């Protein structure tokens, strides 16, 4: 019996890997453009890094195991706890604020569904050690810039912004005692039917008036509406932060891409301030990205308090969105030069190949004697931009016959000139 691919995982054959590399390259370039530095961590961590720090939903989805030394370990379901652990490890030796990014491979035991897999990649961008609202502004500007780099326009996506801090003050105002239990239920609001949502709230023993007041709050579409609803002093700071954030993002020229969306809560337990999620404009797909401010995670993991804010953008929904908009590159292979030999002269092939590569071009060729027709076929499959004939008899001494595939131009010249033309 043949062994199947594990559910929720993917094989990346070269055409798929080329597309994956395009996503990673675009992500990486965008981060570098904003001055973020790359970091990495282990793919598994001590189980306790996740239990009760990440929130119930993620804990239920952990892939965990006991190793031969009887240690309880878990494959990483997200990068944020690793990042907080690393920040605690170096403490004051790290000169803050830090702007860091990473592209980890993550694992979550999710119900298989469109846009959600059990193994996926997620770009993480985080700012560590800044409590300024301009850190949120930097991250949100980076999201818009990178989605533009992929070819997405303002009317392809929207970034919904809310505030856990504002929500917390509203909870206090309407007498909800245990907000941590309510966040995950509110987060699932759009994913379940209105009846299930109400049932979930009732299970938390909220009374009908509180449920109604929560609804009123989440349906507010402007800061003015919220200001009318909540009159308490406590909400003023959160409201002022939101105002400042919207004002600076407007000045950065991205007002079209952002929206106040109080229905965004985020499922993870550690968020303390601004939270945001990125969706396709039709909201027909799961979130492309999500993040927010988490000012107490390092402290909860035993370190000192370091204000942090960041987001994660998965590769799965992003690739679906790019595909839908026709923005994925061709999966066709590419190489600069394919060498062809009429006489199957392998020694000549290897000697010329070495020269071409030294001159800075990629180059490949047959590995065993093959008809010229077949060699040219292989050149096409490899996506060669040019073919150089290593032993054609129509080229003068010291020169080579060659063909530029795109134009069909055939000529003969010195290797140096051919390479210059292809470059
Ligand atoms: P998250 O909302 O759990 O946040 O994930 C962020 C993004 O990762 C999602 O919007 C989605 O694109 C992608 N994603 C999540 N789960 C899956 C899955 N099973 N399959 C495919 N893609 C998925 C976090 O993970 C936070 N740690 C982000 C963060 C960084 N917050 C602060 N810094």
Summarize the structure.
The chain is of the alpha+beta class and 423 residues long. It is built from 15 helices and 17 strands. Strands 1, 5, 6, 7, 8, 9, 10, 11 and 12 form a nine-stranded mixed beta sheet that branches. It has a five-stranded mixed beta sheet with strand order 14-13-15-16-17, sandwiched between helices. Strands 2-4-3 form a three-stranded antiparallel beta sheet, with no helix packed on it.
Explain what the structure shows.
With about 425 residues, the protein is of the alpha+beta class. The protein has 2 domains: about 15-325, 2-Layer Sandwich (BirA Bifunctional Protein, domain 2), CATH 3.30.930.10; about 335-420, Anticodon-binding domain (Rossmann fold). The protein has helices at about 15-35, 55-60, 80-90, 135-150, 165-175, 180-185, 195-205, 210-220, 225-230, 235-250, 295-300, 315-325, 345-360, 370-380, 415-420, and strands at about 35-40, 45, 65, 70-75, 100, 105, 120-130, 155-165, 260, 275-280, 290-295, 310-315, 335-340, 365, 385-390, 400-405, 410-415. Strands 1, 5, 6, 7, 8, 9, 10, 11 and 12 form a 9-stranded mixed beta sheet that branches. A 5-stranded mixed beta sheet has the order 14-13-15-16-17, sandwiched between helices. A 3-stranded antiparallel beta sheet has the order 2-4-3, with no helix packed on it. A hairpin with a 5-residue loop joins strand 3 and strand 4 (about 70-75). Helix 1 (about 15-35) packs across helix 4 and helix 4 packs parallel to helix 10. It starts with 13 loop residues before the first helix and ends with a helix. The mean pLDDT is about 95.
